[in-house]
Amino acid sequence: MPIDIAARVLANRPLSSDYNVLALAAPAIAAIATPGQFVMVKANAGADPLLRRPFSIFEILRDARGDVTGITILSKRIGVSTSLIYDAREGQRIDCLGPLGRPFTIVEPPTHACMVAGGVGLAPFATLAQALRARRVTSTLFYGARSAAELFYLDFFRDLGVELLLTTEDGSLGERGRIVAPLDRRLAGMPASTGVMIYACGPEGMMAATAKTAMKYGRPCEVSVERVMGCGLGGCYSCVVPMRGADGVVHNVRSCIAGPVLPGDQIQWD
Amino acid sequence: MPIDIAARVLANRPLSSDYNVLALAAPAIAAIATPGQFVMVKANAGADPLLRRPFSIFEILRDARGDVTGITILSKRIGVSTSLIYDAREGQRIDCLGPLGRPFTIVEPPTHACMVAGGVGLAPFATLAQALRARRVTSTLFYGARSAAELFYLDFFRDLGVELLLTTEDGSLGERGRIVAPLDRRLAGMPASTGVMIYACGPEGMMAATAKTAMKYGRPCEVSVERVMGCGLGGCYSCVVPMRGADGVVHNVRSCIAGPVLPGDQIQWD
Amino acid sequence: MDLSVHIGALTLKNPLIAASGCFGYGVEYADVVDLSTLGAIVSKGLFLKAREGHAAPRIVETPAGMLNAIGLQGIGAQRFIDEKMPELRARGATVIVNVCGTTIDEYVEVSRMLADTEGIVAIELNISCPNIKEGGIQFGCSLNGTFDVVSAVRKVTRLPVIPKLTPNVTDIASFARSAEEAGADAISLVNTFLAMVIDVETRKPKISNGMGGLSGPAIRPIAVRMVHECRQAVKIPILGMGGITNARDALEFIIAGANAVQIGTANFVDPFIWPKLLDGIRDYGQRHNIARVSDLVGTVARSHD
Amino acid sequence: MDLSVHIGALTLKNPLIAASGCFGYGVEYADVVDLSTLGAIVSKGLFLKAREGHAAPRIVETPAGMLNAIGLQGIGAQRFIDEKMPELRARGATVIVNVCGTTIDEYVEVSRMLADTEGIVAIELNISCPNIKEGGIQFGCSLNGTFDVVSAVRKVTRLPVIPKLTPNVTDIASFARSAEEAGADAISLVNTFLAMVIDVETRKPKISNGMGGLSGPAIRPIAVRMVHECRQAVKIPILGMGGITNARDALEFIIAGANAVQIGTANFVDPFIWPKLLDGIRDYGQRHNIARVSDLVGTVARSHD
Ligand SMILES: Cc1cc2nc3c(=O)[nH]c(=O)nc-3n(C[C@H](O)[C@H](O)[C@H](O)COP(=O)(O)OP(=O)(O)OC[C@H]3O[C@@H](n4cnc5c(N)ncnc54)[C@H](O)[C@@H]3O)c2cc1C
Ligand SMILES: Cc1cc2nc3c(=O)[nH]c(=O)nc-3n(C[C@H](O)[C@H](O)[C@H](O)COP(=O)(O)OP(=O)(O)OC[C@H]3O[C@@H](n4cnc5c(N)ncnc54)[C@H](O)[C@@H]3O)c2cc1C
Ligand SMILES: Cc1cc2nc3c(=O)[nH]c(=O)nc-3n(C[C@H](O)[C@H](O)[C@H](O)COP(=O)(O)O)c2cc1C
Ligand SMILES: Cc1cc2nc3c(=O)[nH]c(=O)nc-3n(C[C@H](O)[C@H](O)[C@H](O)COP(=O)(O)O)c2cc1C
Ligand code: FES
Ligand code: FES
């Protein structure tokens, strides 16, 4: 059951001129969230902007005693609400509804986890990496961005024992190019007997390429899709993704309640 | 010529649970403002709320060297924009257009000035009292509010040598009742040979009563009227006040450019 | 305050209704709000057959509003009866169905199917969806079309029949009269305003269907005016809507002439809105000493009183 | 980018026009904006005689919009010619007059008076003001009324005649066609939407006239749709407006089909908007390599291209 909290901003840490991490006092949401779930956020009073915006839950915050105190979101400034989030001030209230949506399936050892993140698509993987680590699942983060300056939280993942494979479009860190290339190589090199699960989040094209690469190697793949969402609760039918159903027919499926994590091989990528 | 400044909030001082004084870095406006003028303020980005709001210029701010640095406004929280102003944070930007409107006529000695303020109607009198003092005009501030807790800046006026006559509706400070009663007594007691100018700002009913009292004693009276203003520049015709013109006929006059300071005896009070 | 609302023989426990297309099939919100506390919920638009609707993007935000062109994706009348009604009944929901059609026959057939289903208390006729080519608005934009659909459905059910009017007309009051003459028990208004948003960088419309329907606070003052006009024109109850976001807004519609109100877009922004609305209306009743919410309906005072 | 706009024989230096009723008589803004840099300014609505308009309050804010019922307060045609035109000429303003009437004869007479005045380049016929009882919208809400006013004025002047259409109709394109057939050189759209705001505490309308016209960003998506529909229906230029607040919005109207745009409410919020709009349009032209702003008119791409 989702909860709506007028959450106090605990901290707002800019990571770059566009990215920031916003910490919100939302313990009741933090207490029940699972990796891959999201919150619907409204950073302004009044009707312009009108609707909430969906954000992956990035981190779960805990106090010194280990009790949950809130969540963070990793936001990339692209428009009006993400600008408000970038400029948010400590002490301000931000409406936060969640946790929402279907989370990632968390595999068991000896399956190896490949997390594939493009840009702000990193967001759901911080909590996923922790959950995998808790189950002692080994994992690799394939993480691509435009440049070195937009690759964040590398130490966070290193400290969890996650193997890092980085790409940048300008070659300023890691391999030059797109993130699917190293994924493809890695999958090509893995014996069929080794279990692998692929998780992806990022731009639509990257996710489609990841899903297709996974299919090429017959590997399961879960993608966290990003659609314009009006409600986040299944009420508006704005967030649909065309998916092949059990009947073999393509249906429009609401990604806010059937997803945002969906099986990559059932999506009708175009 | 009015100037539009995205003014930084220098300070926000709450005076009560509804009143606050907001200091805005708007030196170019401060430099040319005269007592009784106003600014049009927008405290939010986006279109809800949409329009600016009119506020009297309360104080002119100066730095240690005596150079103007900005203005303050005295705001009473009654709705959406005044709530944003009450909650404004230091460093935030607020659009501020001004100075606008026709100011008070500043009399010369030996004329005595009676300033009549009701509630937030105090706002234009801080700069007026200073201007009168600069001309060595003696003055009295008749200042009424609901209770003692809503009578502000008394020391400011005392320090300028302004005589204070206070009323409160609950009798918690000064005389119990409305402010027009002591004004009436004062005017009744003044010999016709003593020049008096009456300035009034406050609720509509109080201003009408003040204007009528002034007329009763044949004294000139300038009132600063308060109308819903769409533009503040004469563009929208929203702010009209019915006034008897030179032709003896009542015309709707735009209070943003013909006023806000208008001769009380020409207004068609209803 | 007595909050009950009467629509023909039907009594709703309060005037708060979840608007069609803005509350899924109701079941989606069962976790968030006690469905039995709502005056009623209106189902998503139902055709005879299932429909997939338009491609995404289906919505775009506008100043104080949103455009949608969902294209009436839906599971069709029979699956609604089989798959959704059992849970809605179990949850104690009062269900009004929103009936769509591409022909009068389809309206009649869908209405007949649904009218016989336990738990369905009224039929709202969607003759006003701006987002599909065939059907719907072609009836709602013509006085005869409105009359014909309503009277055809009127004949096949004893449930209250509630045509939902489009605001995209010159004189909405004449449509209200036409509906009343055809035997409607009430009217719902307004549906969305046909509108368009263009991405100037690509010069493409922002939603895949090109045009869509505008809802939300942006349209509220127009909707209030239309409710007021219809209140002068007809005697039957009005279900008013368009941009209601709080109790004040709901009361504004009621004072303008609505017997009950529907909430659409605001439910997206705040799914926990329902108890807040109810509390706000109760509080107003207490402050103003109003015995029955129905005493407020259509009580606009003259400006100069 | 070549910003010039052609309306019949008339050429405007750029597509930015101050909308009627939102820029006083122009002279009020002479301190704030160089009037000669605007494509044109449209005067406040002018009748033959002076009018005092409605009592205050005349406006009320709504979500992303505002309602007004000024009641066409104005100084009348003759005083406009005598008192305002000299300064407007001296400032180099390009003046379009907004002509009102309670009868066709009044439209004709006012148009004739103004057409002979140096510095006035076109006549916008206000047949769409929702805020006065007599005249105006009664013509604008009927196809014959629109045709008759336009053709009557057409006969008495060689200046471009530009009827301003109301959005409060079912099919605005048919009104555009009617205007074109009657000889209009261009059409302006949209005027405001008839709307209402009620103060629930007093149950009185918030503005003294009861109802008023809704303008501002709230209406923009509907206005864009109407411009797009009219662009398909007629060949004459369209002066598009409704909620334009920045260059992006202006370009949206142009892409939808407007040859020029008018800015009303946004000028209240930011009287310094004009150079910002011009810069924004120029910048867009450069980024997209557009030689003439007229090349953008009515170039909506298909959603799925
Ligand atoms: C389940 C989910 C999880 C998400 N998690 C994150 C996250 O962790 N961090 C993050 O930064 N972002 C995330 N997003 C995307 C985020 O919701 C959008 O960036 C945000 O809604 C943009 O709001 P805005 O007001 O800044 O942009 P707007 O001003 O509304 O829009 C700016 C432009 O971006 C387009 N746009 C808006 N929303 C989307 C969207 N969802 N998809 C594609 N284009 C869009 C608009 O059409 C417009 O052209 C997530 C989206 C979903 C669906
Ligand atoms: C020339 C001038 C100078 C002013 N100076 C000051 C000042 O120094 N300090 C100060 O606190 N206020 C001042 N005001 C009043 C101030 O402009 C309003 O309080 C403000 O616009 C309210 O904005 P809001 O968004 O908070 O209220 P809204 O949410 O817009 O409105 C709340 C309620 O107040 C009513 N209302 C709004 N504006 C006015 C108005 N101007 N007159 C009467 N009723 C109104 C509305 O109809 C509504 O019912 C001045 C007004 C004028 C015209
Ligand atoms: C996403 C969405 C889907 C809608 N679907 C329907 C529908 O299926 N049938 C219908 O009659 N109205 C539909 N509507 C219109 C609403 O029921 C309502 O009339 C309109 O949104 C105005 O109310 P609001 O401003 O409170 O949203 C839909 C509206 C939205 C926003
Ligand atoms: C206060 C006000 C007064 C107006 N007066 C007139 C008028 O006299 N004549 C007219 O044709 N339109 C008038 N209008 C309508 C505007 O010209 C314009 O059509 C409408 O406001 C939509 O544009 P906007 O959203 O940019 O304001 C007026 C609008 C406002 C807000
Ligand atoms: S976001 Fe509303 S149904 Fe998914
Ligand atoms: S506020 Fe617009 S004319 Fe006075």
Note the overall shape of chain C: globular
The SSE string of chain A, one letter per element, is EEHEEEEHEEHEHEEHEHEEEE
Number of strands of chain A: 16
User: β content of chain C, as a range?
Assistant: 15-25%
The CATH superfamily of chain C bears the name Aldolase class I
Uncertain ranges of chain A = none
SS class of chain C: alpha/beta
Structural class of chain A: alpha/beta
Bound compounds: flavin-adenine dinucleotide, flavin mononucleotide, FE2/S2 (inorganic) cluster
The strand count of chain C comes to 16
Question: If helices are DSSP runs of H or I spanning 4 or more residues, what is the number of helices of chain A?
Answer: 6
How much of the sequence lies in strands of chain A comes to 25-35%
Tally of discrete structural domains of chain A: 2
Q: Give the end-to-end Cα distance of chain A, rounded to a whole number of Å.
A: 34 Å
| Portion in helices of chain C | 25-40%
CATH fold annotation of the largest domain in chain A: Rossmann fold
